[in-house]
Amino acid sequence: MKVKKSLTLALAGTMLFSGLLAGCGSNNNTNAAKETNNSAAAGNSAGSTSELKPYELKMYLIGGPQKDLDLVLKEVNKYTQEKINATLNITMFDWGDYDKKMQVITASGEPYDIAFTSSWTNDFRRNAANGTFLGLNDLLDKYGKETKEVLDPRFLEGTKIKGEIYGVPVNKELGQQWVWRFNKKYVDKYNMDISNIRTLDDLEPLLKTIKENEPADITPLAVPKGFKPFMPFDYVLGDELPIGVYMDSTDGKVVNILETPELATSLDTMRRLYTAGYLRPDVATLEGIDNIKTGKWFADREITQPYAEKGWSRSAGYEIVTSPMHEPYVYTQSAAGSMHAISVTSGDPERAMMFLNLLNTDKYLRNLLNYGIEGTHYKKISENVIEDLPAMQDSYAMPGFTLGNMLLTYLHADDPADKWDAFKKFNDSSKEAPTFGFAFDPTPVKTEVAAINNVTKEFMPALYTGSVDPKTYLPKATKKFKEAGLEKVIAEVQKQLDEWNQTKK
Amino acid sequence: MSAFFKSLNKDKVLWFMVLPGTIWFLIFCYLPMFGTIIAFKDFKIHRDGFFASVLNSKWVGLENFNFLFSTEDAYIITRNTILYNVALISLGLVLAVGIAITLNELVNKRMAKVYQTAMFMPYFLSWVIISFFTFSFLSVDKGILNQVIVYFGGDPVSWYGDTRFWPYILIFMGIWKSIGYSSVVYLAAIAGIDKSYYEAAMIDGASKWQQIKFITLPLLKPLMVTLTILAIGGIFRSDFGLFYQIPRDSGVLYSVTNVIDTYIYRSMSTTGNLGMSTAAGLYQSIVGFIMVIVTNSIVKKISKENAIF
Amino acid sequence: MEVFKRKPKEVDNNAITPFWNVVLNIVIGVFAFTCVFPFLFVIAISFTDEKVLALNGFSLIPEKFSMAAYQFIFNTGDQLFRSFGVTLLVTVLGTLISLFLITTYAYVLSRRSFRYRNFFSFFAFFTMLFSGGMVPNYIVATQFLHLYNTIWALILPIAMNAFFILVMRTFFQTSVPDALIEAAKIDGSGEFRTFLQIVLPISLPGIATIGLFCTLGYWNDWFNALLYIDDASLVPLQAMLMRIQNNMEFVIQNSMQMGSSFEIAATLPTETVRMAMVVLATLPIALAYPFFQKYFVKGLTVGSLKE
């Protein structure tokens, strides 16, 4: 009994203690916010840049922290101070850490201004749903006009959530297109014509040739467990979950992909390919595959961009050729491959937008941030072409596609001169997927989504790679998905999709 | 209340000694515990910082806990977690004590030291790296195990596709990695036992086995009880790497490899909801807590000395 | 004439029979070998040429010897040495601080005369099960204590551990008989002096154990660095390793969404470097292990009850 009494006393004490400190903590925050609010308001009413108060923008970017970051930032700040009286304080988190660190930073309410976001890290939809990011429609109209003009409008459409834009997209390849990649060595050896290889059926005879004529360690179809046969669906919740809309759909109906004939035939085909030995026997357990390194492969698949083969061949050390699987499409997530968002805790959102506008339209600034200082990190061969100096690899190798409008960046000697034009053409030729621009909010069915995530991981990799017999496993999967509440999720998706379609009209 | 002040006065040195640790616990453990309230809220970010976010988020009661119970998986993961833990705790205890005693009895002390250092090594490897090695054993085409089987005329087994063997594989790997670490505690305890007890027993004609049974084991009992009760507190938790990396996240094996921690991880992979993950952690904590209270009370009735509190 | 002087072999009358000795040696020996075996591979792989490794898989003897992995690591220059230094400092300092906090707290728990020992036991134990989670801990450490980018962020958050405390308490209770403490009290020794001069020396095996565990805990910790450190001069060794490993896995798993990422994949270190890092991070601590080990040898502590 004594223990109980002292226990309750202690717990009460701790609660009180926590509450007090909590009070202190939040007070600090609100005061700071109020102050910066005032100064921002003052800056706003002034209008002209000469009257802008100096402000330091805190920015989080992804990528390995670079040794010369401070050096380059000094130059950057000289420039930005001139233009918008703002200086930059950039912190970089490495690829594997970025998501976790941003989660902790945003949840703990630390103030910052700009952060890199996308569909594959620091997920912009999750953040928008949580209220982390500011809606940017007004800011873009007021201070980001030039950026808007440069961007293919579909970039902005695709990243709208309930009509509000939450991230400034980076101008780069917009369309997403899967291609079959081939190890040219074997293509030439057997005189294969790969110009029309689109489907798995097209591919099959080629795989057979390799399997029959090459030693066992040459993998005909070198794919890891994430492989999915191409099917004409627009996946609404990511291509793992079997919820989609037909690409050519006119009625916007959301289907359970497990029940479609396309899935059944794809699975049968994959099973056939697997049992014939065209894939690695342990494919369902392969997280990644090192075929490029060993060169012991014939075909695999990858997402492409204009002139991608050159990059792939260059890093592999041997030639790789491709054949497209389908026409390029614009999905919501392809528009969200790389964006910058402004935090709700930002002290001066207008300044943040001004900076982003500058970054996406000013050639000098954009290249400074990307490639570093001329003469130190690179040297110019001509107006638009540069050559990397060793210092770049050592001290300032930045992931270009995360930094802003790609089309402004300098080219390298082995890039085709029309690289950015090719990008533009590629983007223009991309068709919009039916749910392009639609962002599903999973909160009403979060329990079911969590459950079907588990079922997906249990069945889909094995099924998609043909590792198990669909005749026995597909019914099992279907049943388990049903139990997990797949129907409920589909109904909710349909509901939200219909609402969104209404607003489009 | 007066008892409290009396104690303060009488044991003032003790109170001083317990103070630094207590302060640490208050700051680093009890203070952050306010965060568990997120488990009951639909957490949304507010511009004024964390506390504003918590206060302004909607109260949703037990909704965040639903995903743990909503499907038949709930039974599977719970069953798996409990069974694996029971096996690991009991086997771990027997083997750790057994190895500690054995190492002490080996005649060549230098070899004993070498063995002991060797057994500690797996602790330093991460499950990711260990999974490379298990893969090189169990891979269906190039794995060593299958090569041996084929050599002796058998058919290769699809290890990552067959659920039958995995409970044994996982329990073995779990023990293999931790036994060096766990036996150290018992080794140290045995080292502290007065040698004269054994000498006296030997003079009385006791056999080795009797010495172990009547001297070593009883003297190790407090430690065994303490460690076991503490282990029971983790009954709903698992070593994530063991159950995720070693089976290489092979879906076909889920019915025997999915435990609560892996289920939570996989559920969060597309939603990442702070409220739900906090709720899951809270659920595991509460169950473990109840188990310990129950176990502790039982132990208290049998031998008051060995209870934790 | 040189006579080989050999110390007469001590005859242990209480030893186990030779038969059992051999059997147990074999059993334990085999098991110990399986524990070391993967390490041999790790070392072998770290000295293997990358391409050959990808082609032929793991093999115990490097098919093509190569120092490339180590060269890659040492090319990072002073980062490696700095990280090593940070880890060393944190480990030593942290272990000392931990041992102080743990032994004092555990000693109080072990004193049966202390009225509130059960309360404090529960107080400590409760923290083993319940935790606020990553975010509240982060807030306390950064917003209240301002530990971000300081060495204390690597030491303080894991300085105490209820598990260690309870084990230590058990050690105190079993190795130090009450009679001894009463005797000391009668002799006029205060609690703290008793603690320092009587209890601690007797409990050396226990302290060595907990000291070892603390050392390992600090040495292996990368999580706190992930959360609280982004200043390159304060990144500890394991964190550096983990960072690289996480990056590799992340890029592999997400490469399709990242699109233009093939440039990045080329700069990431490879399997051999990964293994080399394991070797570098583990070897020092494995070498330090015998230092603790000598305390586990039976009979090292002097029987204390005799007077």
UniProtKB/TrEMBL annotation, chain C:
SUPFAM superfamilies to which the protein is assigned, alphabetical: MetI-like
**Membrane topology per the record?**
Multi-pass membrane protein
Q: Which terms under GO biological process does the entry name? A: transmembrane transport
Query: Which Pfam families does this UniProt record tie to the protein?
Result: BPD_transp_1
Write out the transmembrane intervals: 20-45, 85-107, 119-139, 151-172, 195-219, 273-292
Q: Which family does it belong to?
A: Belongs to the binding-protein-dependent transport system permease family.
Q: What is this protein called?
A: Sugar ABC transporter permease
What organism does this protein naturally occur in? Paenibacillus odorifer
